[in-house]
Amino acid sequence: MSGKTVIVTGATGFLGRQVVKEFNRRGWNVKGTGFTRADGVSILKVDLANASEVEKVLDEHNPQVVVHCAANRFPDKVDADPEGTKKLNVDATRSLAKLCASRGILLVYISTDYVFPGRLGDAPHETDAATGPTNLYGLTKLEGERAVLDESSGVVLRVPVLYGPAESNAESAVNVLMDVVLGVQGPGANSKAVKMDHWALRYPTNTEDVARVCHDVAVRYLEDSSDCASLPRVLQFSSEDRYTKYEICQLFGEIMGLNIDKIEANTQGNDPAASVQRPFDCKLSTRALRELGIDVGTQDFVGWWRREARAFRK
């Protein structure tokens, strides 16, 4: 695929950086888009809500593929800014899908396992399983999926909660648990116990693995570009590693040799009064990817953290 060009939206973000790195490693011409952290060279400053800015970038760089990573992806932040989230997660996605479709560009849209209700007994979810988000974040990502499927011949790639190399632990709902473990240490730590969810099942997946799959999907779909109608439009990728957030804290404590007695397991599930309701088990089936011949192997969660955890002790 040398000589091909890819544009990665959200290229300065947690997943976007790894997608840029992976396509670069595979010999592609890579351009990223960002906004507040764009350097104007490798990362182009583009307001995705401005169709003329997006159109200009597409026409200047003529990509064969766009990987759309940009999103407001934290459920609590989504609830705090529903209008801004809709503009990015839904409206900008629809506009991008139309622009890609009119230019014959393959769009790979990163979605989430939170499009499913995650009820007891439903998992694993196949790509055609009934959706039913439990929160606004999942709803906006599902509406983004529909925009891509309606407006283009693009591909939806659903992924679960992510971990991996980060500029700050707060970039990831998994990495940030290291801060929780570190925060309850020492005499100056908060004496009040921290309650941590020990109910919802999560399948943490490394951003490096997701980036590899994005590349492999792009290659596979470009190879069959003359017969894309025969290829699935919705794909799913996930690790098989399963943890609650409390279990991840236990693991981090063990790896770092730290006591987590001040972290208490909360097995109560969703607080009915909470604005953000989270699903119980959204495990994603990877069947569609496997049937395409795409490697769905992932890094071992425990092994990765045993190697890398010290670097996250900020």
TrEMBL record:
- Cite a GO CC annotation: methionine adenosyltransferase complex
GO BP: S-adenosylmethionine biosynthetic process
Tell me which InterPro entries the record gives.
dTDP_dehydrorham_reduct, NAD(P)-bd_dom_sf, RmlD-like-bd
A Pfam entry, by short name: RmlD_sub_bind
Residue ranges of the RmlD-like substrate binding domain? Answer: 5-293
Coiled-coil annotated residue ranges, if any:
none
- Which superkingdom? Eukaryota
What GO molecular function terms would the record report? methionine adenosyltransferase regulator activity
Q: Which PANTHER family match?
A: DTDP-4-DEHYDRORHAMNOSE REDUCTASE, METHIONINE ADENOSYLTRANSFERASE 2 SUBUNIT BETA
According to UniProt, the name of this protein is RmlD-like substrate binding domain-containing protein
Q: Which organism is it from?
A: Cercophora scortea
